[in-house]
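Hi R.,

Here's the chain you asked about this morning:
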Amino acid sequence: MVVVIVSPVTHKIVNALNTVKDYHFIKSKGPRCFYYTEGKEGDAATIYKTKKLIVQLIGAVYVFEAYGIYNGMIDLFSYLPSEKKDNNKYYNQTKKDISDEELQAWKKENNIV
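And here is the predicted structure, written out as tokens:
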């Protein structure tokens, strides 16, 4: 699963999460950093676990938010059902935050199946 962390202090978060074995840095784009993790618990639980981990690593002082990915876009509306997301303009843009091809190339390059 791809987890996106949005924060004005992404450099601190990147440095902290790079020390954790289960989180693999994909890319950083502005105030967003993209990480890959197995996420065996499900999307919501993985995002919650990521938030707790960041607080443990750098403290609760820094402002950040964590999201999943849906159809290559940051899942800002995770509460919506898939049927609504499939019809939503935001999730169907041609310019993606992270494309499937980009993610597959990164996985192949880093030997992650």
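One quick note: The chain is about 35% helix and 20% strand.

Cheers,
M.
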